[in-house]
Amino acid sequence: MLIMFRVKNFASFKDEVILDMRAISYKDMKNHVLEIGKNKVVKTLALYGKNASGKSNLISALYYFESFVYNQFFDAGNRDDEVDLGDRMPNVKRSTFKLGEVVNDDSEFEILFSQNNKTYQYGFVIHDIQEEKKYSIKEEWLLVDDKQVFDRQQDVISFGKKYENELKDIDRQRQDRLYIGVLDYFAEGEVKKIVDEFKDYLKHKFNVHFELILEGSVKGLVSGISFSKRIVEDEAYRKTIEKFIRVADVGIVGLSIEENKDEKTKERHPYEVKTIHNVYNDAGEVVREEKFELNMESSGTNRYFSLIQYILNVIEDGGVFIVDEMSARLHPILTKFIVDLFQGKMNKEAQLIFTTHDISLMNRKQFRRDEIAFVEKNKKGESTLYTLADIKARSDASFAKDYMAGKYGAIPVLSDNDIYAEMVGEWLCQD
Questions:
Q1: What is the CATH code for 2-223+318-416?
Q2: In this structure, how many other beta carbons lie within 10 angstroms of the beta carbon of residue 107?
Q3: What is the DSSP letter of 402?
Q4: How much is the pTM?
Q5: What is the rounded distance in angstroms from the CA atom of residue 203 to the CA atom of residue 319?
Q6: Residue 15 has what DSSP assignment?
Q7: CB-side neighbour CA atoms (13 Å) of 9
């Protein structure tokens, strides 16, 4: 499970921000908290904020971290069927904060997570070499259960006492490579087990999903009409997906798996999924079934179909699902349904982090105060991150009402804008 993610000098985040999933000792909604060992974290975190506040930049930072580290491992290209929902990986470039008088070329990333009853703390500082259009790793560190595995400062690497004998001879490094990738290839014994567990978490338990033009994931690109190979090969899984689709009340009664007859695509995609709809007579009786291609369904239906595959995998296997604009093209009731799945008592290992503008969810029956966060950008273009817990919001407050009234910040201030007032006035005065 994800405990904390920290980033500094990435896009609009000039200063350090911490995405903190650690639960506060509130008495309410204890079923919203996962407890594994000494770690207590919330199951869900909703990120609110005005357009261009930096919400998507935070998701991009998580995505960049995942993709950059994931691709350092020597077998990163071997994406199994459960992971690969597409064919390509969208490229998210790292950009430092550009609106300061002095530009800092160093970005910093750090993650704290629990895997197999161990706590991993890993991070790195990456430096842009502007004149060469390259980058170098300035710092890198890994701790397991608060014990140092290695610490890298430029070209100098030190090791924790427990692991020194295993690592002292692995001195291969390049300025543009993470040392953890080197260990993945050369390490043996206990260190190899540590790296394998780290890699397994990143590959199967840490899932960042966001939109560019199509639905994107580090493990593969998911267009609105893509599907996991598991849905073809695992009938029980497919039946479960069908149940989730029927819950959405979009008129789909089932899914059909058929051979792809398109000569141009069948080698890469031997099967295709079609949706099944009932056909009714004038008396409202079902007379037969009709199959539709996925591209005939609405964009919202395809988005839900895409999301629910990830969600089911995460809830079954544990891990964190991070999604940008989760409520986009979804009815608020469907968004609530997804949140409820993660907050339910049956969920023992899965977390959901998502950005949204849907304030119908922003209430004390849906979320604890440590489950609602805001991203706000100041006049200098700098984004900050804080939760209702950070600003000491009252437990009995009307969260949505107070948010729209501006008590929590992170909203557009149109009424104080002279241009806004002038434009509205002109339109209202027109005949």
A1: 3.40.50
A2: 25
A3: H
A4: 0.90
A5: 10
A6: S
A7: 15
